[in-house]
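Hi,

I'm pasting everything inline rather than attaching a file, because the server keeps stripping attachments. The sequence lines come first, and each chain or strand is labelled.
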Amino acid sequence: MKKIIYITGILIILGLGIYAIYPSKANTYKGKNTYKNLQISKEELKETEFLQNKKAVVYLSTTADQDFDGKGASYAVFIDNHGKSQGLQMKGLELGSMAINKKNILLEEKDRVRIVGEDYKEFPMSKKQYTGEITGYLKNKNIFFSIYNSGINKGSYNSDVRFGNEKGFKTSTIPFYIASSGLNKTDLSILTHDVKENEFNLKKVVFNKDVKTQQVTKLNTQKDVDMNALSPILADQKYYYFILSSTLDDYNAKVYLYQINKINKKQKVFKLLDYKDMKDLVATDPYNVKNSAYLYKKELYYVNGLGDVYTFNTSTQKIKKKFSLINANQSKIRHNEETYFKDNYLYVFRYNEKKSGKYYLEQYSLDSGELIKSTDIQNFDKLSKSIRGKNIYSYDLKVLQ
Amino acid sequence: MKMKTVSTMALAFGVLFGSNSFASAAETDNSYFDKVLSMQPDVTSEELLSSVNEISINTGESKDAIFEKIYQELKSDQDKGIKESKSLKVTIPEKGQSTNLEGDEILGGSGGTVSVGSSTKGNFYYTPSQTAYLNHGHVGMYYSSTTIVESVPSDGVRTISTTKRKVDSSGAVVKSVDTTTAKRTAAADWAYSQLGESYSYNFATNRSTSHTGAKNCSKLIWSAYKLKASLDLDVDGGLGVYPRDVRDASATTKVRNI
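And the predicted assembly:
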């Protein structure tokens, strides 16, 4: 009996001690306790109908420099049809993105890929990746793929590739630094950049047993002018299109649309925008250069960071401002804003300090420019701040339905 | 038996509630060597010892004195980081007002994000960031007006587009180095030539480590200007050059807030 009292006494003191020492830490570790109910469980993730009530997914990650302790983190935040958010926390992958097909979504992280949806699978990857470039699904091959900006290895540049499906994933390497890329149905293109020579080349990427590139053409750019890619590579039956900017100084920049004939490789350059005496030139950069442009009904749409949507008519080559996002923020400071074109709509993931959930998803008609729908998002703000001691930034938005 | 119970309970109390004072006592007994290692957990004791040995041979100073100097410099940088993170202001766009954020809020990403944006070749950017376990900050250099060359813990020395490189919007700046365009260009070219080199967690003695081979973010920029422009971009000298040392170096001028 005395022994029981003795042990009970010790346990009580230990319990009190732990409570006295650790409560402040427990309260501030937002990711572990306060937001536990916002995390997607493994069981939920593996349900075949997991995606059925999901409207959209936002991908966020720490930057590569924050992975000093191997604890860089990323999130796939799934937003359901009622605007409720739930997050799947993964390892970090700066500039990571997601790919979708009719049944599944590909999620990637530093050392793993997952296929989530009707056929849940996950594959550990032996080589870690830290900087993403493009992710997609090739319907004709039934494969998901992801290409990474992996860096120099043995004197040459490596952009590593992961590709596969529910049966397994393989890896390969493309020996180029990639400035921009784009998947147009079954045609994957990359704009490679030799930074030292300041030379751009348009190439096709072909997936067979291995991954190979085919030269399309070298871009006619001036060697002494630095260019930045502001859009993905788009393509219709006749041409490739992409947008590059040339910054003249801290206040002035020109934005060019490149059009390259698929057959004769002739290049045409159109001045899309001319920013003069801008107080905040960085504010003009799109929310996400990977999701900033789209082809619809013979018009190329481009949404810039000021919320203005411009069109280039591929038949008449006329350029005009078609519409603007309502009350678009004119500041360069972002709060995970993202854009995504799908069918005849432009979706915009936005932030407003005054809203209770702070985030909302807008849907604009490309035909009329009108705002069709706006959905308030709950709990995204909490999830985006839940990684203690690290900052996560948005890198992709996909609208699923 | 009673006495045994009471004394065991007292011991448990002591272990738990006295742990802070025990830790403090232990801390004061630790050598500066242990303290430095604990502040840079990814630096091996061999690496640190070897570096300090070399400094000791070159300067004639005792190893103990060198370890103390390293510790004081690390502590000073840490304190500076904490002070800065507490005083940072952020602007809430919808309100158009500035507000103070606490350190933890800043590290949780409350202040918004921004692309580093374009700047002149040879300029560099600084952003407050947890690098190598402490809030050392981070610096990266403009290889061209649209491409950053920087050393990051995972990749080592890499390039990234200025539109794709996001940083926290509070406290980040672009700075230029006060030298000729030719020297700025040469420094940026040298930094680019280091692409693929791995990352070094050793900030403490990085002024005396080799210019080639593994390096951290501040060492990359410091070496580039030391070798190509004979400039010492380290505000306080000492044994280590930290990102804030580069930011605050006298031969630099602020271009813009990011």
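The first helix of chain A runs from residue 2 to 21.

If the labels don't parse on your end, tell me and I'll reformat.
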